[in-house]
Amino acid sequence: MARVSLVWLAAAAAVLAQPARTPVFQRGVCFTAERGVRYGSEESKKMLRALPAYGVNSVALVPYGFVQRNPMQLLPAGPRSWESEDGVEALAVLARQLGMKVMLKPHLWRLRDGELDNPQSRSGFLSAYGGFAEHYARMAVRIRADFFSIGTELAPSTRDEAAWRAIIARVRAIYKGPLTYSAIQGPEFETIGFWDALDYIGLDNYYPLGDGYSAADALARIEKVQRRFRKPVVFTEAGFSSAVGARKAPWMDETANPVSLEEQLRCYRALLEAFYRKPWFYGVYWWKIGTNGYGGKENNSMTPWGKPAMEEVGKWYRQGSR
Length: 322
Hints:
Blueprint: H1 2-17, E1 26-32, H2 42-49, E2 58-61, E3 64-68, E4 73-75, H3 85-97, E5 101-104, E6 107-109, H4 119-142, E7 147-152, H5 161-172, E8 179-184, H6 187-191, E9 201-205, H7 216-229, E10 233-238, H8 261-275, E11 281-290, H9 308-318
Helix pairs in contact: 4-5, 8-9
């Protein structure tokens, strides 16, 4: 009897150690390795420790893989990269100690414009991507990631629904926690057919805001997808630069446009007001907080760090309503 009890307890402990598949509200930021400060360094850890003061309960760690051609191969971040596997793991451990959850969100650097338009090149890419996704699924298990984004902005490969369903199945055989995919706004996000196979509908949300900083158009587009699939929505990225014109082109970063802290603040506030309390909305990861702490009031990039937009994030995140 004692032996049976020990076996049962071990099995129960293994189940409890797995990430929960029940939707969790993610008050997040994307925490990216920036020039001069690698993941896992003391400076990166110091920056990570600063985030809970703003109510941040989730961080996306973003390792970059690389594309090698002829033949196409997708290479994960190596030991000398800014996002080495040891560095990712060190930050994941610290994030848990600080009470934060971790999303592993690999990117590819860099696909050429139009590279996946051709069916033949798309087929070669998807054949390679399965192994790339499995590599990071194993990393997600190793670092005990709470969420795993299986890909980021890989249109038009996502037109091949059968191939992506096969990739999802391969990943689920390795990583048992909740999955999403990080689609870019517009046609990719609005036409993906495999959201039902994932746990969250993931959106890198750079839909422009309308006159008066209205998010009504973005809300309508996103709600249409959510009503079809009945899955929780998480913004795996969202953001605006602190520059004049950011509401019209949220994706622009480090341009020649003049600094406008007010523009960024109003855009952040508009997005939070439009989505935060929607019952199907489960959080946002702002793009981005850098390991080197770059930002400040003279900086017009997309980081909110050291700017009024970060204080606005803190007001929403600390209120505890979600």
